[in-house]
Here is the input.
Amino acid sequence: MTETVSRPAGAQQVPLPLDVEAIRADFPILSRTVRDGRRLVYLDSGATSQKPRSVLDAERDFYENHNAAPHRGAHQLAEEATGLYEAARAKVAAFIGAPEREVVFTRNSTESINLVAYALSNAATAKEPEFRRYAVGQGDEIVVTEMEHHANLLPWQQLCERTGATLRWLGLTDDGRLDLSDLDTVVNERTKLVAVTQQSNILGTINPLGGIIARAHEVGALVLVDGAQSVPHQPVDVTTLGADFLVFSGHKMLGPTGVGVLWGRYEVLDALPPFLTGGSMIEVVRMEASTFMPPPQRFEAGVPMTAQVIGLGAAVEYLERLGMDKVLAHEEALTEYALAQLQAIPGVTVIGPPDTVARGGAISFTVEGIHPHDVGQVLDDLGVEVRVGHHCAWPVVRRYGVPATTRATFYVHTGYDDVDALVDAVREAQRFFGVAPAVTEGGAS
Ligand code: PLP
Here is the structure.
């Protein structure tokens, strides 16, 4: 893009807390080009994040030097693999302020949520009385919100279908926030569990969890917090969060794909039957019946994704070196800048909170006269990689009456130049489709 566009008055480049150039040098993929030599402007970390060299090195080192199945076998490699696997658990646990025994490794957030949902329905028929405490059945209610990712909606719909429980939900306000006006009605004595996202993947909204968790506990319900979009982007400490479960995915926080986390309060985890059964989660196995290990092993059946867990440990170390407070402040500055610029473009509508109050760095928008997929196509041609579609949160786009949105998400390597590239590309899309306003901000047309 050769045209120089002046930036709107509200778009100020305050100094960014993170050293973007130094961080970019840690990510091998960011040095490649796309679309005939263009700089890669990666604004899709909300879907999956790129990986720093230290994460790639940790996985490679495991396979090259220590590869064995952890928690099985007594040989040296097995001992080393077990040590590295458990050391990663300790790092992840410390990252969220939890004891190690409360951290269960899964494949991703989706599996973590399914684990809880299946454990709650398995509880109803568990032969062990101690596993029936949280059983969900007919007459019970599960509460979600209208802004949940499908991963935090469908497992609960399915749980209700399996058990005869009823699904209820909190709606949304026009400006992209949770409508809590009927919280005390929706969350009531019949509620068994409330599942809510901490940060919306599509709207960017950061939810006020304190009141929701307090109400849920008041009526004796469990609370599962979907941290897939919050744990990578802000400090999250389970001791202050106050929930019963927290789920997140390694691949969205600089770690590998194939590893996720279920954190659960020990007392609750300990009262749940397993979801998957098999090797390494058992105490005694007989042909007639078997008994299970305590958490977290009870929920980690089979040889685990060891290299990925170790890679996640390296990702956590990387984020801790940067400091999660700085990561949050970095994204807040970028979000403020991006919102000011995008909202200054006539025809662009931000779907979600229009300001930076309780809002993270996921910005969804529509461009009048251009389908979001076409916006994405033009952006991609210019090297700007964003996500388009319903973002696995179909009820949200339906709620706001749009077929889909274009979504930009930021992370530690994102700089103002990335946001400028996005904004310039949106203007270019308007020109390409002949919907550019006659006079735009700063005089560019
Ligand atoms: N929850 C939220 C808010 C998400 O954004 C996502 C993924 O985008 C998920 C859950 C599911 O994550 P995963 O696909 O890693 O299981």
